[in-house]
TrEMBL record:
Species in which this protein is naturally found: Malassezia brasiliensis
PROSITE patterns named among the record's database cross-references: W2
UniProtKB keywords: Cytoplasm, Initiation factor, Protein biosynthesis
Gene: GCD6
PANTHER family, A to Z: TRANSLATION INITIATION FACTOR EIF-2B SUBUNIT EPSILON
Location of this chain's protein in the cell: Cytoplasm, Cytosol
Biased composition (Acidic residues): 473-483, 551-575
W2 domain span: 605-784
tRNA-binding found in the keyword field: no
Protein name: Translation initiation factor eIF2B subunit epsilon
Subunit structure: Component of the translation initiation factor 2B (eIF2B) complex which is a heterodecamer of two sets of five different subunits: alpha, beta, gamma, delta and epsilon. Subunits alpha, beta and delta comprise a regulatory subcomplex and subunits epsilon and gamma comprise a catalytic subcomplex. Within the complex, the hexameric regulatory complex resides at the center, with the two heterodimeric catalytic subcomplexes bound on opposite sides.
Family under the similarity heading: Belongs to the eIF-2B gamma/epsilon subunits family.
Biased composition range(s): Polar residues: 581-598
Protein biosynthesis among keywords: yes
Amino acid sequence: MAHEELGEEDPLQAVVLCDVFTQRFAPLTLDMPRCLMPVCNVPLIEWTIETLARAGVHEVFFLATWHVAQIRAYLEEKHPALCKPPSARGGSANTTSLQKLTLIAVPEARSIGDMMRELDAHQVIKSDFVLMHGDAVGNLDLAAVVAAHKQRRRVDRNAIMTVCTMPIAEHSRARPFGDQSVFTVAPSTSQLLYYNSVPAIPRKPFIKLPLELFDDENAQSLSGKGAEIDVRNDLVHCGVDVCAIDVPPLFTENFDYQLFLREFVQGILTSDLLEAKIFLHVAPPANASSTSSGTPWDATAKGLLGSPAYGEGYMLRASGPGAYEVVSNDVLTGWTYPYTPRLRLPNSANYTHLSSLRFLGEGATYALSARIGFRSLIGPASRLEDEVDAHHSVVGARVRIGARSRVHHAFLWNDVTVGEDCELSGCIVGHNVTILDRVRLDRGTIVASNCVIGPDVHLERGAHVSLHPFRESEDDEEEDEERSGDASALGANGKGYLWEPLHTKVHDTDSDEDDTDEVENAANAQLFGMDADLADVDLSDAPSDLSSIDADSDPEALLGDETDDELDSDSELDSPDSPSGFGSVSLTLPDGTESQTYGEKVETENRLSEFRVEANASLERAFEENHAPDNAAIELKTLRMASNVPPSEVRRVVIAFVLARCDVERPKETADLLDKWGALFREVSHDDQIDAIAVMQSYCAMHLSHTRLFLPLLKKVYNDEMVSDDAILAWWRHPSSRKVVYELDEKREATVKPVVLELRKRAEPVVRHILESQESSEEDDEEDDDE
């Protein structure tokens, strides 16, 4: 390697890629840089700066091709001191390690590879550095990843990069179905051996791995365990990596490297000339709840494969409208803690938490008849008029929403005006847009800044509106009026052009497919939108078919070879602090899903997963803020109706949440907890007490620390009349008392079922007592009759 010293003392540098050269956010990005798009009312560039400052970065280089003047103006306005040389800063204080921000214009770049070659030409990188996409959002402990990378470099000078990934649940919308990844890894070293990109269209029924990966001698040198490798498709690239100083010159040496993962990383891994190695970091999830969470990290390895857990947290790219929605929801849910509206967002206004993940900015107001629903953020100085219904939405600053309008799963940026009787669903509306009366925007609609729509207009699914006629990209000088539609389609007072929806271009036979990236081709690119309909798309094999690890449905695999004692004391999967209280139990789909299409099942699982997250967040607040159980029950009922899930899901969430906070070693505290929250247990159990007891039994069986609690719990719910004596007898006779009511894989169920039967046996004294009491009562009744 050219760099003889790793330069430990050199200040840490970072490179931020402001452009990614896709059109997923068009037409929004025709007039503004992607890195200034707001996520929860915070420009993406602020998320980037906060993440890098927290990681100990001293100097950041922003590489930008388009809208350079806007980015420079923003940095100079918001971070003037960091944009000046130290000698010109005067007495301005800086409380972080971050010392300098530099914007480098690369106007000729048309790919990430071009950007990296320009970076190499500038010769500004002095040591190992952080490479980050400008649309990555999260709280990943990047400092720990950097430290591990440097330690690895001291041992192996060929270790040029650490790629950061995060595990994602199989059917989560956080998984980019249009661009999934398969990582092949040496489990004992975390060395990345091979990388596959798996677009949905064109269909890939299988993946190819080089035969040499399975060669005993080669595999022995890689992992020390023969031909053992892990093939994982449950991971998503975080959009941030740690690179050696050798990386930019490698782009310069090979002009074929244009894309980062699919060309550069794969090119390094398959090169016969280079000895360079790339390693994989799998971020352990932090202690929070998320719509993207699901598969826990590899518990056997305690985090990074082959080494102790470190570098925990969440980091996900808002790489398209669909991912933008997921990331926004996860911020509101608290997955990016401490960067949440409840505490603080990077360089942002303060928000008041109303409850149920509803946040109100300073100076924001709403009419008494207006309704702000779950997981909603209303920006400063905004106003919601009479009978407005807004939920699962982010509203920017100085937004006005007219009377009787509905805003659901929508993102309204600053200075938007919405008229009366409008309906905005699943859309992104740019800055300073005016929506006149009686306008309906269907899911997937994107309205670029400064447009006017209405009145009396209905824009159907996937509509794109811009002040400009259709253009293929930011630097496209040819505007296609034909593909921009009729301006009158925007209404009598409309201003702008209605672009042709993306899904209508899927079968455009006149397009030149030879030069089109297979991931960004129109058929595949539609999967990145908020309106992605998986039921209408011929997807490649289900995600689990490509993965050698299906941890989300195989909890036993996550536990590895740990003993029962270790599970009782060490496993976070059984911990009462586990946010869901479910450990790694798979979600059981409601009846009637067997006949659903794959896309419908995905949507159902997403809805159930989302409900679990919000219900647990609601219960967490109720416990922390000491709410009355009746109020908690009302909030859960409202949430259930909004999420359209069956009552059994509420029952399982509540029982698991309460039981997770019961401690057999603290009987008094546990009794006090049940005394207070017994009313909530009773409320969610009244419609099916048999199922409630069975859920309690299975939960205790799956969590070994709770097996000793089952009998006292059963006595408690019986004595306090949370369930009736007839319900206990009916449970005893019912098949659910002899099986695990949670959906587990065969191996896990075989382990848990004997415990379920043992707990049923332990319940015999309670059942016997009830029978004897009933017999005694019947005898007394007979004596009374005789008299």
